[in-house]
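Input for the complex:
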Amino acid sequence: EPEVTQTPSHQVTQMGQEVILRCVPISNHLYFYWYRQILGQKVEFLVSFYNNEISEKSEIFDDQFSVERPDGSNFTLKIRSTKLEDSAMYFCASSEVLGRNEQFFGPGTRLTVL
Amino acid sequence: SQQGEEDPQALSIQEGENATMNCSYKTSINNLQWYRQNSGRGLVHLILIRSNEREKHSGRLRVTLDTSKKSSSLLITASRAADTASYFCATDRDYKLSFGAGTTVTVRA
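Predicted:
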């Protein structure tokens, strides 16, 4: 069964460093998303992406964040200068139809900022 | 905010019993989805119910949706130890999912 994959599973970085989280969505899906979950808190929407453009972003997704689909399979989330409060589980998701179909989530990348 | 809010926060049941959890939300939605998350792991999609549907079944899962009350329920029948997890409802509107805080279900053997 096709699934969303994410690498790495765990990333440890120093405050101020740049990190890139990688995702491979399900191959026939057209819509891609990033969410995050701070330990013990709700899953929060960050950004949605379609046709090489951001469709919507939340207040969390400020200028420190960017997304890219560098090739036909990968979808990345970049945090330019990490802060302690960026420590969280980051989930990538994809869906066939924007907003009206199941979103399938990857296993997540646990980001720890020291 | 359209966020779903689950009730109860935690539920402990004996294996074989049914587990019911509820979700309430605030605004109109396209659909509502239920997810399961095992401790420290990813989100597993369980079931999607569209705004024009009232009830949906998938295996041992039964989901209802009452758009007039802006609420949904998830019933897990004949629970198993493997059903121990956190369960989240997520409302879908405007191209994003809004998650509640979840219900933590513990199934005792």
